[in-house]
Write a structure and sequence with these properties.
The chain has 595 residues and is an all-alpha fold. It has a domain of 241 residues: MetI-like (MetI-like fold), CATH 1.10.3720.10. The chain is 75% helix and 0% strand. The protein has 28 helices and no strands. The C terminus is likely disordered.
């Protein structure tokens, strides 16, 4: 009888529903990515399997992987991406290492110059190289002054790789630098104290610990390189054609959606395979500065192989460094690493700032150095409805994109940082997925999807595409911001009687406002400088500044382009200055002096 009473009491108890945990906060971002990234990408995949009559067919893939031009384009793409990645790591690592050894204030100032190069328009930088390295250009004038004759710089594989390295090297540096900043340099000092020379201490201690940053930089640069089409279009010849160019040609010019979609699928699989390999070795969480994933059996063998290579490099470098210190090192007395880093920063910024004097030319053609001085091209820009309309549209869309990306990225980052569920790894991968898919694929997938919704040639359609592309970087910035926030302060404020709104306004927001500002600026700049989505989603009617620059380069090439580029550069400089002003000061005590 008593047992029946207990059962009836249990039946009368109210059913307790599971409380929504932090993972529910990511639902808006998840829904957005499922609707505007995953679903359009799946549609493109299905499109590659059906011909124009609607019949199921593998003809596009058979044509692509068969003998002919498509196979050469695929090999070109991987070859150029590989060498671009290799050179970015080889040239960028010394710069990142030098920056990591500077004081915090000096590092911030010089890192700002590297970031300025990264966020300056790829389109403008490549066109500036076209002017500087062309016939009668600045490079040819310098060679003639030195008595070296003339040389053909343009329209070959070397210049394509050079320009892509110039564009993506800052990405490699800013990816490696945070990892290097986390390393304790006292370990290197301890190694030298125990008998290792500086070369051995660097290779066997510092370099091995920084490999996580090197691998993350290599992954991002390689994936970005796969989808490049601006640089080979302007500076290469048909022999350097890459998959991105082929996709645009098949869809925009030939209207062959099946083959164009098949090319996009191949590009996506190449990027995803790279990410899978990276995840097996290092773990994708290391892209956001997390700890490396514990190694399995295969990664243990890779680690042993890597250590053997590093030991060999240390053995080779040690006598070379010793001979240098005993000979030329005593005579020169200069910091060669510092000289190299400063020269590299100058090279990164040269095409960015070379366009400024060209915008004040009095001539009708772009040249460097410019001829005369005049403000007429700024007047032409100001009086042009096309340029003013494109500028205002870029500002409006950029502000909207920055706000939406911050809202979606903040909810997703807060969910991932506060959750202890196993699903947080899947969420992390989903929010990073747009970074792993080349932007050209995202653009054509959204274009096909938006055409069915009537969003092509609308500001809304362009903004949606820009949010998709900007969201991963905003998410990573906010994730590191939330991970660096001390949530015990919020709990303490709540314990002392503050309500949730007061805790948010007086504790949480003041602590994370720098990260929010940086995320908004990055979201805005991603939209402001983005060309690929605007090229498709604009439908030839809605132009942004990058799209108007693209049209001007292809159709007329007037100095108005340089004036517009100067205005864009001014916007970037102002936004970076604002971001530095709102960035919170580091209030941590100098532990090195107290320990």
């Amino acid at each position: 009888m008593s047992s029946l009473t207990e059962i009836s009491k249990k039946e009368r108890r109210p059913l307790k529903l599971p409380r929504p945990g932090p993972l529910w906060l990511a639902l808006p971002g998840v829904a957005f990515l499922l609707l505007f990234l995953i679903w359009p990408s799946l549609r493109i995949f299905s499109l590659s399997l059906f011909d124009r009559s609607g019949q199921f067919s593998f003809a596009a893939f058979a044509r692509f992987f068969g003998p002919g031009v498509y196979q050469r384009v695929l090999l070109n793409t991987f070859n150029i991406a590989f060498w671009t990645t290799l050179w970015c790591l080889a040239l960028g690592y010394p710069l990142a290492y030098w920056l990591s050894g500077l004081s915090k204030r000096s590092q911030q100032a010089l890192s700002l110059l590297v970031l300025l190069s990264f966020w300056s328009s790829t389109l403008v930088k490549n066109f500036t190289w076209l002017i500087l390295l062309g016939r009668g250009g600045f490079a040819e004038q310098v060679m003639q002054m030195l008595g070296l004759g003339t040389m053909q710089f343009l329209f070959n594989r070397g210049i394509v790789i050079f320009a892509m390295v110039h564009t993506l090297l800052p990405l490699a540096v800013v990816t490696m630098l945070p990892v290097m900043n986390q390393l304790d340099r006292r370990l290197t000092m301890a190694a030298t104290t125990l008998g290792a020379d500086p070369a051995q201490a660097f290779w066997r201690v510092f370099f091995t610990q920084s490999m996580r940053g090197v691998a993350a930089a290599g992954l991002l640069v390689f994936i970005s390189s796969l989808g490049f089409f601006i640089t080979p279009t302007f500076l290469g010849s048909p022999r350097e054609m890459m998959l991105g160019q082929m996709i645009i040609m098949q869809i925009n010019e030939l209207q062959n959606w099946q083959l164009g979609s098949a090319l996009a699928v191949v590009l996506v699989f190449a990027a995803l395979i790279s990410c899978i390999i990276y995840n097996l070795i290092f773990g994708l969480s290391s892209l956001a500065g997390g700890a490396a994933k514990p190694g399995s059996l295969h990664s243990r063998y890779l680690r042993l192989t890597g250590l053997a290579i590093v030991n060999a490099l240390a053995t080779i470098a040690s006598p070379i460094a010793l001979a240098w210190r005993k000979s030329l090192g005593r005579l020169l007395r200069v910091n060669l690493l510092g000289v190299y880093a400063c020269l590299l920063i100058v090279v990164l910024l040269f095409p960015v700032f070379a366009v400024v004097p060209m915008s004040f030319t009095s001539g009708s053609f772009l040249s460097f150095p410019p001829k005369g001085f005049s403000l007429k091209w700024f007047e032409v820009w100001f009086d042009s409805p096309l340029w003013i309309g494109a500028t205002l549209r870029s500002f409006g869309i950029g502000i909207v994109v920055g706000l939406i990306a911050c809202i979606l990225g903040a909810s997703g980052a807060l969910s991932v940082s506060r959750s202890r569920s196993k699903a947080r790894g899947g969420l992390f991968f989903l929010f990073l997925l747009p970074m792993m898919i080349p932007s050209i694929v995202i653009a054509i997938a959204l274009f096909y999807f938006a055409a069915q919704l009537g969003l092509v040639a609308t500001n809304t359609g362009i903004a949606i595409g820009h949010v998709v592309i900007a969201l991963p970087m905003v998410f990573v910035i906010l994730l590191t911001t939330f991970q660096g926030h001390d949530w015990r302060l919020d709990h303490a404020a709540a314990t002392l009687g503050a309500n949730k709104l007061q805790v948010l306004m007086r504790v949480t927001l003041p602590s994370i406002k720098g990260g929010l500002a940086a995320a908004f600026v990055i979201g805005f700049l991603t939209s402001f400088e983005e060309l690929t989505v605007a090229l498709f989603m604009g439908g030839g009617m809605k132009t942004t500044i990058p799209k108007q620059m693209w049209d001007d380069i292809l159709l007329q090439v007037s100095p108005t382009l340089a004036a517009a580029s100067t205005i864009v550069l001014l916007v970037v400089v102002i936004l970076f200055s604002v971001m530095q002003l709102v960035k919170p000061r580091d209030k941590r005590a100098p532990t090195e002096s107290t320990n």
